[in-house]
Design goal:
single chain, disordered N terminus, 470 residues, Porin, 16-stranded antiparallel barrel
Length: 470
């Protein structure tokens, strides 16, 4: 097991690295493994869930390495360049099949296929690792079969440094620039890298999600300052602005500036905060935390759409708590993680008949809790519970005039259910998963939720995934 490392002193990095390299290694995961020379169990329980060492590696800007670099040093002995001899490039491939319990009807009353094959579902190319002294990055470029295009996925650019404080306490501090709120987070209890780690894009998705729960991913640019004291107490504060991909100004045809014809543009900056505390003892770790943000958005979407950048806005105030417990043994690994997100909406720009909302004030609450067990990092099982509830608003959660499947006859977003998953990992960079998603409520109802006879259980799905990382 990786022991606790005092990150404030760079010498401890060398000690930790030597100890890990002396241990028996298995097939390493891609970029970071190539850069550090460590097998993936150093930073992960199983990918992509991080261990404490993995969290410290991320907080230190992904810069620890074990490769002979190309160096440049100034006359004053300042390190000006540290290029890796091997570029930290990696490839991820996902191939899947999804079966839905009941076929989906189209507007003419015809039925779709009840199963979908994605070959591939997703291919991602990563640059993940050190760029320069104290500067590193996680950059993901993805092809997805749902859109059939290649585009920017998660990005986290970091600069970090560390200090050794009196009484052998450490301080890590840095800056992160990223494009998805919580993608920069160190724990797997927050949305961006939380469970499910992979999901079918052929599933029927519910109507509602909070803004911080992936809704704005890849549509924003954020910058944050963060610090971690003694590998335990973590704090971060930052702000996000809209950074739409593929958006054009209606008059100039250029990539900007954004205006009211673009959907959901952030007005000003959206403040973001994060506070967490992690305690380690033996083979165990426990973290508890708070995070949140406030987003002021213009609905936009057309020249006739309500709201301009100088007019009324919709405000979404998200506050959340999270926790994560890990046990990492020689044979057995167990994780229990959860989050509870509350969103308070003030819909000044969308209030009114035909504008998008019945109520000035609405709320939305999402809760997830997940337990994961692995034996020898080869055989695994996961059970996750999820629940989303919210206010009654027939415009925000509308009914359809024909079988819409993703509509709500009750005008509420309430969706509840569970996910059960079995995993087999023949190698540490290859996973075969069978994921069963069961709904007890969907878009406000258990039976006839859309007003055309479709039940929540009709959207249950079975998802078979083969996931490679190289």
């Amino acid at each position: 097991m990786v022991t606790r490392i005092m990150m404030g002193c760079r010498g401890w990095w060398a000690v930790a690295l030597a100890a890990l390299l002396a241990a028996p290694t298995a097939q390493a995961v891609p970029s970071f493994a190539r850069q550090t020379g460590m097998a993936c169990e150093a930073c992960h329980t199983v990918f992509p869930e991080l261990t404490h060492f993995g969290r410290m590696f991320k907080a230190n800007a992904y810069t620890v390495d074990n490769l002979k670099p190309v160096r440049g040093v100034s006359a004053s002995k300042e390190e000006m360049l540290a290029l890796s001899g091997l570029p930290p490039i990696a490839l991820m491939v996902q191939v899947s099949q999804t079966s839905i319990a009941k076929a989906i009807p189209d507007g003419a009353g015809n039925l779709s296929q009840s199963s979908s094959v994605a070959f591939p579902q997703q291919i991602s190319l990563f640059y993940a690792g050190k760029i320069a002294p104290r500067l590193g990055a996680f950059i993901q470029l993805t092809y997805g079969n749902d859109e059939g295009t290649i585009g920017i996925d998660n990005v986290d650019l970091r600069w970090a440094d560390n200090k050794l404080l009196p009484n052998d306490r450490s301080l890590i501090y840095g800056i992160t620039a990223n494009n998805n709120p919580t993608v920069q987070d160190l724990w797997n209890s927050t949305p961006a890298f939380g469970y499910p780690y992979a999901a079918s894009n052929a599933n029927v998705s519910p109507l509602a999600a909070t803004q911080i729960d992936g809704t704005l991913g890849q549509d924003v640019a954020g910058i944050s300052l963060y610090a971690m004291w003694n590998e335990s107490l973590y704090g971060e504060i930052g702000t996000y602005r809209s950074a739409k991909q593929g958006a054009a100004n209606a008059l100039t045809g250029g990539a900007g500036p954004l205006d009211g014809t673009t959907s959901n543009v952030i007005v000003g900056g959206a403040p973001y905060y994060r506070l967490a505390y992690e305690h380690l003892w033996g083979r165990n770790s426990l973290s508890v935390g708070l995070y949140g943000a406030t987003f002021k958005l213009v609905p936009g979407g057309s020249t006739d759409a309500p709201g301009t950048l100088n007019g009324p806005v919709n405000e979404f105030r998200d506050t959340a708590e999270d926790f994560q417990y890990q046990f990492i043994g020689d044979q057995h690994l167990f994780t229990l993680a959860g989050t509870h997100i509350r969103e308070k909406m003030t819909l000044n720009a969308s209030l009114g008949d035909g504008l998008g909302a019945d109520n000035l004030h609405n709320d939305l609450t999402t809760t997830r809790i997940t337990g994961t067990y692995y034996y020898q990092r080869k055989y695994g099982a996961v059970l996750g519970l999820f629940s989303t509830t919210g206010s009654l608003d027939t415009q925000l959660y509308p009914a359809g005039d024909a079988p819409g499947v993703v509509t709500s006859a009750s005008g509420t977003p309430d969706t509840k259910g569970w996910i059960a998953e079995l995993n087999y990992m023949p190698w540490l960079n290859t996973r075969i998963s069978l994921q069963d998603t069961q709904y007890t409520k969907f878009n406000g109802g258990g039976t006839n939720y859309d007003g055309f006879g479709r039940n929540a259980s009709d959207n249950n799905s079975l998802y078979l995934l083969v996931w490679f990382n190289y």
